[in-house]
């Protein structure tokens, strides 16, 4: 049954609006100030005072500029803390985000071309091929994807491969790299359709990768193969480690077993029972590298694990939907910060599961939890290190309410040492493979 909007309905709706005594007041406020400013509850701000019972020192906040590399910044920020604390390196030290960015884009290009070949027998209008062609590669990623890069290529200090115009403002390189990849997709699908030999396809793909490598070197710089690690510690002692490779630098100065850290998610949807593991089809970067794998847990369990990790001096990488109920300038994330439902006198409520199922929310941004305020043993708010520079929040740090975490945080990375025996057993399960467009496959 279909029903179009009738003029008498519109007249009725307008009459109902005219009968509201506050309608003109609200209209003037919203039309001039916007929805968020008109619905902001300033009492919520007083609860988000940036003082925490557990507060880790993590140095100066980094700035990803006009790029979508938050997942990379967040992960490298957690790793630099180990180096800074162990070797007494100054607060301004950073690991090179551009180095991992270069290899991520190169590996993602190869990953895309492999998926083109795997789906070459499907029509262009199939959902999988359509999804694949929508964004051949992008800046975003997942924790396991960064681990795959580091395990293969290592890492370097920022000065060994500094930022470029295209790493800080990635729109241009993304545009032309995706154009190149779609061009290559046409050629590979044609070769498969013409029943070309495996040798011919492999040779063609190698030529494509050679061209992609050249594009990336021009845009991001030639990737570092060795460098001198040179610094003064906080006691002003000079140190130099000559001609060290990125792989050896990671082993010696970060000394982190990446296999110890696992991805835990909170997705309370009917299709993902808790205490089960999941992966996402066609999600990754390094072919034959580390698999993206999530263990789904209740949020109450995730919080306990995050607190344990913080209490032991380790920060927590996490993924969330940062744009929800968030004031970037003030650095506040709180579900009571805005009350648009009261402003519009309309029910705008959705459960966390409904937001995921109906496309209202998914993971959009990765950051680092560096503190928590425990009152009577329970968390009330959390300290968050962002990667948007020091001009937002409190010198780049945000405050996240515990209620906001419940609703809009989807992923934690936790050291397996803090998991219970049952959780460890569950994490070892073979993962269920989800569709490529599943919200748990969103890239931060």
Task: Supply the helix-strand structural class.
Answer: alpha+beta
> How many strand segments?
14
Number of structural domains: 1
CATH class bucket: Alpha Beta
Relative strand content: 15-25%
Tertiary shape? globular
The appropriate CATH architecture is Alpha-Beta Complex
Q: How many angstroms does the end-to-end distance come to? A: 41 Å
Could you describe the largest sheet, including whether it forms a barrel? Answer: 12 strands, mixed
Using the coordinates shown, work out and report the CATH topology: Cathepsin B, Chain A
CATH superfamily: Cysteine proteinases
Overall mean confidence score, pLDDT: 96
Helix content: 40-55%
Q: Flag low-confidence runs.
A: none
Rg to the nearest angstrom? 24 Å
Number of helices: 17
Notes on the protein architecture:
This protein is of the alpha+beta class. The chain has a single domain, classed as Cathepsin B, Chain A, CATH 3.90.70. It contains 17 helices and 14 strands. Strands 1, 4, 5, 6, 7, 8, 9, 10, 11, 12, 13 and 14 form a 12-stranded mixed β-sheet that branches. A hairpin with a 2-residue loop joins β10 and β11. The radius of gyration is 24 Å and the shape is globular. It starts with 6 loop residues before the first helix and ends in a 10-residue tail after the last strand. The model has no long low-confidence stretch (mean pLDDT 96). This is Aminopeptidase. Keywords: Aminopeptidase, Hydrolase, Protease, Thiol protease. It is found in: Cytoplasm. Belongs to the peptidase C1 family. GO terms for molecular function: cysteine-type aminopeptidase activity.
């Amino acid at each position: 049954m279909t029903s179009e909007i009738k003029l008498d309905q519109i007249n009725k709706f307008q009459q109902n609006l005219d009968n509201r005594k506050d309608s003109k007041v609200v209209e003037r406020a919203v039309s001039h100030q916007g929805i968020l400013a008109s619905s902001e509850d300033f009492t919520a701000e007083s609860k988000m005072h940036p003082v925490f019972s557990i507060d880790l020192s993590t140095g100066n906040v980094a700035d990803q500029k006009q790029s979508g590399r938050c997942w990379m910044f967040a992960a490298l920020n957690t790793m630099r803390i180990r180096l800074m604390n162990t070797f007494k390196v100054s607060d301004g030290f950073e690991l090179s985000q551009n180095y991992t960015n270069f290899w991520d884009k190169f590996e993602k290009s190869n990953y895309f071309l492999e998926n083109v070949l795997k789906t070459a027998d499907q029509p262009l209008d199939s959902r999988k091929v359509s999804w694949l062609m929508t964004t051949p590669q992008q800046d975003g990623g997942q924790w396991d994807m960064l681990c795959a890069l580091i395990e293969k290529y290592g890492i370097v200090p920022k000065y060994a491969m500094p930022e470029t115009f295209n790493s800080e403002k990635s729109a241009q390189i993304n545009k032309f790299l995706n154009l190149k990849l779609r061009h290559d997709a046409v050629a590979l699908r044609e070769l498969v359709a013409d029943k070309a030999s495996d040798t011919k396809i492999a040779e063609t793909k190698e030529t494509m990768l050679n061209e992609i490598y050249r594009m990336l070197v021009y845009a991001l710089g030639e990737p570092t193969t060795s460098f001198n690690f040179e610094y003064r510690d906080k006691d002003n002692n000079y140190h130099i480690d000559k001609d060290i490779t990125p792989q050896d630098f990671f082993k010696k100065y970060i000394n982190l077993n990446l296999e110890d850290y696992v991805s835990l998610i909170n997705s309370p949807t009917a299709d993902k029972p808790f205490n089960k593991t999941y992966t996402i089809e066609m999600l990754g970067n390094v072919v034959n590298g580390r698999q993206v794998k999530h263990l789904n847990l209740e949020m109450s369990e995730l919080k306990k694990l995050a607190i344990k990790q913080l209490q032991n001096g380790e920060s927590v990488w996490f993924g969330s939907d940062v744009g929800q109920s968030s004031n970037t300038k003030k650095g506040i994330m709180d579900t009571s910060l805005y009350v648009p439902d009261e402003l519009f006198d309309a029910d705008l409520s959705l459960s966390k599961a409904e937001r995921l199922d109906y496309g209202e929310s998914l993971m959009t941004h990765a950051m680092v939890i560096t503190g928590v305020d425990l009152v009577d043993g329970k968390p009330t708010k959390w300290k968050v290190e962002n990667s948007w520079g020091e001009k937002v929040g409190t010198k780049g740090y945000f405050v996240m309410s515990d209620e906001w975490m419940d609703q809009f945080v989807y992923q934690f990375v936790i050291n397996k040492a803090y998991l219970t025996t049952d959780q460890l057993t569950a994490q070892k399960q073979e993962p269920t493979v989800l569709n490529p467009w599943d919200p748990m496959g969103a890239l931060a």
